Amino acid sequence: MSVQRACHNRLLAALPPADFARLQPHLVTVPLRIGEVLMAPGTPIRHVLFVEDGILSVIAAASDDRQIELALIGREGLVGLPVLMGTDRSTHEGRVQASGYAWCLEADAMREILGTNPDLHAFLLRYAYSLTVQIAGTALANTRYKVDQRLARWLLMCHDRTTGDDLPTTHRFLSLMLGINRPGLTTALSAFEQAGMIRTERGAITIRDRAALLAKAGACYGGPEGEYERLLVEGRPVFPVSDAREAP
């Protein structure tokens, strides 16, 4: 089996073989450890990471240390989007939420490759756009949906990015990321557990009934996920960048 066919990262797996071949000599595997910060606000980004296994949270923080989760990144994506968008740093933090590993390449190598491969750049920019859609969905969920719907959405998003049903997390972390006070979160988790949707243990939540979580989340979940599929799975552009012709 080729290295590309063995990839769990959906971006790498979807690339035409020639595009993957450009990246492959620069890719090395690195571990992802819970709590590790892979992208720090205001710090130059040295590497781009295609997640193979594990979950990262993209976190916004204010000067008074208040935090909120903007997005989740797992095997569907990559860490280091500013490199694709012409800058070398982010205002947000990328923190490992669930351990695993990733394919890593140096940011300078990525810039050089993208500079000579507009089709690959366009493809990865579509992923960047899909992440902005997810961030918009998070903003909508946090302001227009109830705590139980937001919690169901978050659990489903984590479940999408894991190979099993166990999600490593703590009440404290979940409370911070969702912007929910601890008593409200505990009440919602308890209700989910009593309904048979999840099982909670110290440091972990196990998904037991995904269908029930989908029903609970309702319209709060699904929009960004559908847009990801449209942008990145249903096919490449009808007219690749390299074949584009100027209008007469």
TrEMBL record:
Gene3D superfamilies to which the protein is assigned, alphabetical: Jelly Rolls, Winged helix-like DNA-binding domain superfamily/Winged helix DNA-binding domain
PROSITE patterns: CNMP_BINDING_3, HTH_CRP_2
Ranges of residues in domain Cyclic nucleotide-binding: 11-120
Tagged with keyword Transcription: yes
Pfam family, one: HTH_Crp_2
InterPro entries tied to this protein: cNMP-bd_dom, cNMP-bd_dom_sf, Env_Response_Regulators, HTH_CRP, RmlC-like_jellyroll, WH-like_DNA-bd_sf, WH_DNA-bd_sf
Segments forming domain HTH crp-type: 145-211
PANTHER family: CRP FAMILY TRANSCRIPTIONAL REGULATORY PROTEIN (PTHR24567), HTH-TYPE TRANSCRIPTIONAL REGULATOR ARCR (PTHR24567:SF74)
Record-given protein name: Crp/Fnr family transcriptional regulator
Organism: Methylobacterium ajmalii
